[in-house]
Amino acid sequence: MPNLEHPAYPAATLLRLESLVPCRESQVSMLLSIFGERQQFTFPSIFIYGHTSSGKTYVMQTLLNTLQLPHVFVNCVEYFTSRLLLEEILIQLQNCSSETKHASHVLCDTFNDFVRMFKQAVTSQDLQDQTLYIVLDRAEQLREMEANILPAFLRLQELTDRNVTVVLLSEIVWELFRPSTGCFEPFTLYFPDYSIGHLQKILSHNHPPEYSADFYAAYINILLGVFYMVCRDLKELQHLAALNFSKYCEPVVRGEANERDTRKLWKNIEPHLKKAMQTVYLREISSSQWERLQRDDGEPGQLKGLSAHAHVELPYYSKFLLIAAYLASYNPVRTDKRFFLKHHGKIKKTNFMKKHEKTSNHLLGPKPFPLDRLLAILYSIVDNRVAPTANIFSQITSLVTLQLLSLVGHNDQLDGPRYKCTVSLDFIRAIARPQQGSIDTF
Amino acid sequence: METDQIRNGVSFLRRSHSEFQEKTTEWTCRMKSREIPTAALVLGVNVTDHDLTFKSLSEVLQNNITPYVALLQAKDCPGIKNLMQKLMGQLMNCYIDVDSSDEEDCVQVSQNRIRCSMASLISWYENITKKTDSETPSKKRTSSRHLQSPPVVVIFKDMESFTTKVLQDFLVISSQHIRELPLILIFGIATSPMIIHSLLPHSVSSLLCIELFQSLSCKEHLSTIIDKLLLTTQFAFKLSEKVLQVLINIFLYHDFSVQNFIKGFQLCIVEHFCSQPLSVLCCRLVEAKKRVNSLSHSQCENVRRLPSFRRYVESQVSEKQIALLTADNFLKEVIQKLLEDLHVYHENYVPVLRCLHVFTSSLPKYPLGKQIRELHCACLENRVWETEEYESSLQLARMLNKSDLVTMLQKCVEIFASSSGKEFDKVVEKLKEFLTQFQKLEVAGACQERGESVSSQKELQKKTDLYHLQKTLLELKESRRSKKLTKFEMLRFEVVDFIDNLVRNYLVPADHKTLHEIMYFNTASALREHLNAAPRIALHTALNNPYCYLKNRALKSDGGTISNKAPDICIVYKLHLECGRLINLVDWLEAFSTVVMAVEGPNAAASDQVDDIIHARFIRAVSELELLGFIKPSKQKTDHVARLTWGGC
């Protein structure tokens, strides 16, 4: 295990830091060596990437906080326009060293303003002699802002002529960031995924105080055995561990097993965890419902998940409209005549069927169709006569708002709107079941 | 009366949602969790009703849980920025609504330089909660209704229409600040909760703690409203069978919207009171009697002209006929009596209808319909006891088993006992008598039947040769046919006959009653025109048969020919109906000019050149057609236009 060593910081702080960031020691030491001493200039920009919950944000935060480096931490999703982002950085900068919060409003519209005000702020806050860190979390959002924002941040040190380092945190690789006009290349650092051993170590790290660390570690071991296949997200695993731990402890609390009796405990918890995987993990039922269920010791069968309510009740003509839309989307135009006209050649049909492979239509996905065709099919599949009333047309629009159909092309195209059917075959089957017409034949 | 209906609707919706509220309250307590508590409200596809639901929901929330409720609509929030703006605007305004006295400076701040970010929202929230903590005792009272730190409820009205990105961003942002800003989300879902999974990736949906609440289906809403509005004697105004059918059809076939149903009903009321001069008498009985006395002569004449009244007159003896037709005072007395009859009829109609519904709704295959509204329609349409369905349902009712029959009778007793009709005391007695008889049977009948069957079995076993066996079997069959009428069956027949009698007495269709025109609105065609408009058909008739709208004598003579007096656009339209997909403009112009010139004699037709004026008229008519969307210029051939419509109408 590489111990963190750095001449600039006291050993005790480093030791504390090390205990706080398990399994990320190498990355931290790398960062420390890049950062150098407080007053030393470092890379103008550092790009850190890694998969979801590989500890990027956490490591940066603990590192900066424990070593008490001056820093600004901004989430780019939260500050969704460049103006909000720049203003937020300035506000945080103002509050950085001075403890008293003065909520002065900063107006900063352009990057030019930002550079100017940034210089002022750094001088006034007395930060010249140490490196200031600006951490931009979820940096992939920067790409959607104005084109100058990302390149400017990358060379902020040069632009402001101050001791500042911009750290970008992102889940995607640097290659996807690189603007076409070229820019300053940041130093990139990769945070690899946690291995199962790492996960085990981190999850068992903060065990509940009532139980011993070994007991909890055994629990985590079982949990990982069930969930590791589907989920490597540390946060999610932590959440699941917290949810199900009380169930694991049940035999111990009742006195039926002691803490060492792993096998018995495993038998108790394993089916329970599997159930959890099918329900809570997929958010079929909420965690609070799950907790209630655990307390009452009920069967999850009584609680229907979200997907159990898949059936949608539709008005009579809406059903037919949707069926017609589905048929129009998945059948080629040339078969319409064969399917929907009363008099068509039977012999031709059999010939056709041999050549044609039915499944391919479903693999290709829905195709757009014009409104006329939809209505023509509607008239032929509804038994009695349908008047083309305003209600029918408004139903089509409401199906679009319900996202069962989707409008292809522009909204303002009035003549000949084209639609696509977005529902699945199962959905249509469920709708068509009460109706006599079976969809399979079409 | 109209407001009555709306109130009914709202109160109903509120009732149906009270369960949600209860759950929401209990579940605000679990805000401490990391996830954002979320309610997925499945409301059904009747989107037009949702507004009312959300309004009452947010009202209840504001009254009971938190003053901070924001309603968001997808069309207001194309981007996360707009969403935040909308959200903050609503929240800050609603705060001002709560106590508008002292917080004017707050408005100014928020209006002028509102920074639409979560941070400012949080600071706003902190300010507010701090303020409410240090409030004067008088205000404590109002805030005590709410929880200690009231959560902020954000309602997404139409989850389906929100773009994925906006929702994701909002959820990610708010989940980061859930500790500082206790947020509760409510998703209004029209289709199915699966939409959450299809809209949000797992990484985002794992931030939520979703609980599902299913609202009643709109069909149930409809039955409640019909129950409250139509099947009651409270309101004098009634719908005739056809009108009700139109309204229900629109509901079932087209929109599932309870609100539209109520609007249709309101339209009926307006139409009725506008078009029927005698609708002055459509009010409570006491008042109606008073108004009868003050009827003018012309109004009396109106009454005499009513078809149902004429039928009544014809059935009277001749002296009375004369009196009815000449003496206004006598007429008024009769009207009062007839109105009273009508009222009594209504009073009796509803309980008997419900009673019949109890029977028919449990029969297999529901010959008379499952819902009471279907039964109601059937009864209004014509004499229900003459229909085949009624016959078959009676047949089925004669085969009911005892326990079902007893529970039904008990239900009927309840219905009659709670009804206001005066004539039902005897009915209730009779029904109770039936019930006691059934109970007696239970003891006696059981042992008797068993004895019988055992004895016949024994007989069977005795006779062994084929001939005798056949004979006894036949005998047995016959005896079964005649003798099987056990006491229970007798009683069952009696019960069914009794019900049948009730139906024949009380469920006479309303249009057999005299003066029904006063109470019943029955111009279904007007309603259909208003509510179920067919724009294409209207356009087609306007262009094909201009007389229909213009009422000009000269246009009337239209057969299949094209009259040259019709407006140009009509001529052009008719000519284009005869063409195929692509129309040659030159041919069209020629045909047009022949039609127009037809009247001007041979000398005009002889000139080969088409008149400039006619040319201009033609071009104008064609461009009008293009504007109406019947044709469009085609790219295949430059001098052709393409037809866009086909004889669908």
Oligomeric composition of the shown chains? heterodimer
- Which two protein chains have the largest interface (Cβ within 8 Å of the partner's Cβ), and how many residues from each? A-B, 55 and 68 residues
Strand order of the largest sheet of chain A: 2-3-4-1-5
β-strand percent of chain A reads: 5-15%
Mean pLDDT across every amino acid position of chain A: 77
Gyration radius over CA of chain B: 36 Å
Compute the number of strand runs of chain B.
10
Percent helix among the residues of chain B? 55-70%
Strand and helix order of chain A: HHEHEHHEHHEEHHHHHHHHHEHHEEH
**CA-based shape of chain B:** extended
Report the average pLDDT across residues of chain B. 74
> Which sheet architecture does the biggest sheet of chain B show?
5 strands, parallel
Compute the separation of the termini of chain A in Å.
Answer: 66 Å
Number of strands of chain A: 8
How does the overall form of chain A come out from the CA principal axes?
A: flat
The percentage of residues in β strands of chain B lies in 5-15%
**What strand order characterises the main sheet of chain B?**
2-3-4-1-5
Structural class of chain A: alpha/beta
